[in-house]
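Here is one chain, start to finish.
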Amino acid sequence: VPFRGLGHRDTPLRGCVSHVPPHPGGRVLTQVLRIAFPDLPPVECSPNWHKHHLPWAIRKATAAAQEDMICRVREQVAMGEPLARAKVTVTFTVPDRRRRDKGNLIAAAKPWLDGLTLAGVIKDDAWQFIEEVYPPVVYEKGVRRTVIEVSEHGL
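Its structure:
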């Protein structure tokens, strides 16, 4: 049975079946894994989303974000053992100078970090296993992007 995340049983798989082994040509994580998303984290995953009374929508968005991360990891890397200690750097690029709460961006990106655990990149996303780094939010006119970089702790 394909992985369907934590969402509703009808959650679409978005073009990737997580139980399928990674592409044989994938590289093994030895330095830095860089995953770029063409947008900011899903607003439905933010704790301040104005429709927070719709738990099914939150579960669906969370499952889709986790599945998206798993697919992106499997496209790039053939994973061996998960990293016992990792450094995770998350960089948000915004398209305008509108005021944004960085804490909400960080919270909304949580399902992507959970996806790293589910994909077998990191052992766990608890503070004992990862060092999270959130550089300042970057402004680049017209560009919405989130970049997550994972490396062995100390690299």
